[in-house]
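**User:**
Everyone, produce one record:

**Assistant:**
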Amino acid sequence: MEHPSILSVAVPVLAVAVGVVLVCLRLRVAPVAGLLVAGAVIGPSGLALLPEVEAVHEVAELGVMLLLFGIGLELSRERLRGLGRALAIGGPVQTGATTLVAAALALALGAPPREALVIGWVVCLSSTALVLKLYGDRDELQSLHGRSAFAILIFQDLLIVPLLVLVPVLGGDTAAGAGAVLLRLALGLGALAIAIFASRRLASRVLGAAARGRSHEASVLGALAVCLGLAWLSEKVGLSPALGALLGGMLLADSDYAHQALSDVVPLREVFASLFFVSVGMLVDLDALARDAALALGATAAIVLLKAGLGALAVGALGAPRRSALLAGLGLAQIGEFSFVLLQIARGHEVVAEERYQLLLSVAALSMIATPLVVASAPRLVDALLRRREEPAPTASAAAARAPQVVVVGYGKNGEILARILRRTGIRYALLDADPERVERARAEEEPIHFGDATRREVLEATGVTGAQVVVFAISDPLAVRAALRAVREVAPRAQVLVRTRHVHEIEPLERLGAARVVAEEYETAIEIYTWVLGRFHVPRNVIRAQTRALRGEDYRMLREPALPEGVSRALAEILVAGTTDLYRLAPDSPAVGRTLAELDLRRATGATVLAVVRGEAPVHGPVAELRLEAGDTVVLVGAHAEIEAAFALLGGEE
């Protein structure tokens, strides 16, 4: 049976989406911006290519659900604890302040009180789908401003539940008053909580069975069943389906199958999220926008500035440096996807007048269209703004008596491990981090840590960079690293700077900025695997070390070339064919324990020859053929790689 209405929607939307993404990649523009603009062009007020516009919106809702399901999968208990202060402080400050200011402005412009309140709610929400997509593409989700914005977005997503219940109340649709509304909300949340508790074990069992059976189909269907099942149930009890999807992801976040479930839904999420962005663009009424272009553009600019400022205020309330606060504020400066849902409900209950509904719809869509450009230009705008205003240098709680030899920027996992090693080796060091929670934790451990923004010269000087021999950047914020590297080169031109980066394409730009060494996680992982494989084939350790040095040399130049140099390839091939030596330490359960080498007859059985046996810390002198082997003895073998492998198997009881 054919479904022409669905096909007539899906084909043009997907064709436009593919074309837009390819063009945006060629122009190095965020694809999200292109999808939003394309939606406006092909929408009902543009070329009107889609006869069933509502079908696009319905399908696009799946994109929001899958996106929030993926977010929930990453919200393990450990990560939620890390977001605690931002959720408890940043979220309420941002939403409360934005609602009050926006509602006050709407009142001043003549809106009735209840309509002004709804406008405040509409304006306070930002786009989780858009911001996380942009931050993920820019590798900024683990930065301080990325984590802060993420926490506030999660708070907003949770806030949508009571807002969806309260909007009909403002429209007079409440026969039993506020008490009934609160009871309805409590019953809905209770029913959803019971369903989540009941389905926790079932979901883990289903995904576990899929994993054990190596069934990709069962894994995908299981993840979708959890996501859409809880979304459906959430809708049935009067709550947001997106909330159910979010809680479904959180249900699996601490299970062993969270990463597999996330990888299963990512392809579907990308497709439906693209439909969502196209559908948002289709909401723009180009005719109304053309008539009131000045008003719509002015209102959009005012709301973006308002939300950026209040968002920065909220992140600043967490103790974040000014730069991180401003970057997070600019990231949260748009009106979000759930605002469209609120607007439609408010319009249906006659809470928002038709003319203001159309204006808010256009402003919300325009703010989302502008967001990719705002996020991309935010670092340059913030750095230019901060250069005009001097920020007082922070003080350290545990400043070293003498200038540090090493300054470590970033007290995440890598920075913490490096600090521990430096402390044990007696090298003087100082730490710098812009996350107040990390700084507080480090100070409790009596670490010499300073709080501040590494992109600021005065902060670096207060940390002791000017006298340091080495500066190490261990932070996951590529743009902040570049800005901070420029500042280090200005205040400490002789310091050797090491930078950790996740991606290879960052190596050359960082070197041009003055990094003496760039450690790329992508290549380091490959080198680690490569050296393990060579060891597995019994390549001598000195050869492995030489190969490792060659691979890391000249900033991984050998790995960046399409093929290994011929001499290197030939040398490795000769090593793998030729004979080598290796050591095998006998475990207590080895079948060789208690037997002599003559009884084992390794040479006849495997081709490998025993050169010596080491017992304790010294080799056994004299003939070893009749030596009865003991647990803990080390056997020195020589032979071809395959022969030594066979000897290892025999000594280990694998044959």
Notes: Confidence is low (pLDDT under 50) at residues 391-401. Strands lie at 406-409, 429-433, 449-451, 470-473, 496-501, 517-520, 579-585, 609-615, 618-619, 634-640. The domain at 406-515 is CATH 3.40.50.720 (Rossmann fold).
